[in-house]
Specification:
By secondary structure, this protein is mainly alpha-helical. Helices cover 59% and strands 6% of the residues. The chain has a single domain, classed as lambda repressor-like DNA-binding domains (434 Repressor (Amino-terminal Domain), Orthogonal Bundle), CATH 1.10.260.40. α2 packs across α3. The radius of gyration is 10 Å and the shape is globular. The mean pLDDT is 96.
Length: 63
């Protein structure tokens, strides 16, 4: 699954650590999601989408 998390996070001027703190997860979790090594749980995916005021489908893309 592809995602646009890195682009959105950088556009918002957030570091991985700041993004993780905002979502209650580690910087490593954000890094793993951005690199496609970890698919977030549904609650985390909803939290990410909510943080950017968009839908899950706008951030995460099934290939």
């Amino acid at each position: 699954m592809r995602n646009d998390l890195r682009e959105r996070r950088e556009a918002a001027g957030l570091s991985q650590a700041a993004m993780g703190e905002a979502l209650g997860v580690s910087r490593q979790t954000i890094n793993s999601i951005e690199n496609g090594k970890y698919d977030p749980s549904l609650p985390l995916a909803f939290a990410i989408a909510s943080h950017f005021a968009t839908t899950i489908e706008e951030i995460f893309h099934v290939d």
